[in-house]
Amino acid sequence: TSVNALSQTGEMVNIDGTGNRVAASLFGSQEVFFVLGINKITPDLASAIYRARNVAAPLNSKKNKKSSLNPCATLDEKCYDCGSPDRICNALTIYYKKMRNMQTMEIIIINESLGF
After folding, report:
1. What does DSSP say about strands 31-37 and 104-110: parallel, antiparallel, or unpaired?
2. What whole-number distance in Å separates Cα of residue 95 and Cα of residue 83?
3. Which of 18, 59, 62, 83 could be a cystine partner for 116, CB 3.0 to 4.6 Å?
4. How does pLDDT run across 6-50, given as a tens digit for each residue?
């Protein structure tokens, strides 16, 4: 899987609309590998949250046919904290450390810009 942002202080941030993406990385798997590009690295947690909400979410919303009419996809690329039933940012997850039930949680950084 991947994340929407990784702070240089070590926290990873993900936004999810239905919970399916973050759920699998939090519970049930013994090993979780996060693969991300250098474009997702931010200086600190506040900027990681900002990136997830105002960069990744609008771009992901644009590419998703169901959510392509959300304000963040049709207006300026930023979060409008909209009430759309098709919003893709219903949950914000911050990973600090691996979960207790996990054996391995690895972050693999690719020296390229990948995804949103």
Report:
1. parallel
2. 26
3. 59
4. 999 999 999 998 888 899 899 988 999 999 999 999 999 999 999
